[in-house]
Amino acid sequence: MIYILVEVVYIVLLLHDIAHQLDDDNRQHTDVDYNFSHMLLMVLWVLATPDSFRSIALRFGKTPGVVHYHYKRIIMALCDMSDTLITWPTHEERQVLSRAVLRRTGFPGVIGALDGCHINIITPRVNPQPYFNRKHDHSIVLQAVADCNLLFRDVYVGQPGSIHDSRVFRRSPLCAQLLNQPGQYLDNDQHILGDGAYILTDKVLTPFRNNGNLNEHQINYNCRHSSARSSVERAFGALKMKWRRLFYLHSWNIEYAVMTIVACVCIHNYLRHQGQLELWAGWLLAVVELWI
């Protein structure tokens, strides 16, 4: 009972923040039939299921055009909120994250893990070949850094699926920032972890290549590295299982697909952030129940 009420609290908070963002952007007042809580529930249903807009419109008693209109407005608002919902950890946060990873895995100085994830899309009408990946699907790449709490700390979305993870990273703003302003993003004894697809640097640590001749220390390093790096894979899994629209985006417009992915990451981070208040909220709701 308390858990369900806590989830409702999160949705109410999300409702308030998105409404505030729409109001700031002067996108809230339109001629379309408007009920904001109803609109948000429709959009969350769209993102959480692979259902068509037509079936969702029937479920909510709207036309597909109205559902699509509200869907686009909500994901645009969430993308506008991305600068506050997807943030690189501060110096103090990095110290806390580093100690947490060290305590869990024994790997020192880890702030987060870097990896790429393919989001399958419908075959683009214009220049589809770059989006054809090694698994014979069309996709765009979601590159992310996730911390040990499964929060996405940096995302870079939109590169075609045929591009290698290492090249995607070299094209990303994060790579340039780590090269040009390393002290602003990582302290001297801190780094992020990547798999064997990435190039080894002092800021991105990769595992030893296993050719069958690794010594005991190298094997131990790889085991601890894999344990610490699993956070980004678990974050991708949580993201896709919660927002199942990301299993396949039926969108001809690449920019529109990118906005959908960023919106899902923003909601993921929002709920993870609010989840840190779950203990407090559960205590509060328990007190309310006692009064009732």
Automatic annotation (TrEMBL):
**Domain DDE Tnp4, residue spans:** 114-269
Q: Name one GO molecular function term.
A: hydrolase activity
Pfam families this protein is in? DDE_Tnp_4
What cellular component GO annotations does this protein have?
Answer: nucleus
Q: What is its main location?
A: nucleus
| Keyword vocabulary terms for this entry | Hydrolase, Metal-binding, Nuclease, Nucleus
Q: Which family does it belong to?
A: Belongs to the HARBI1 family.
Q: What is this protein called?
A: Nuclease
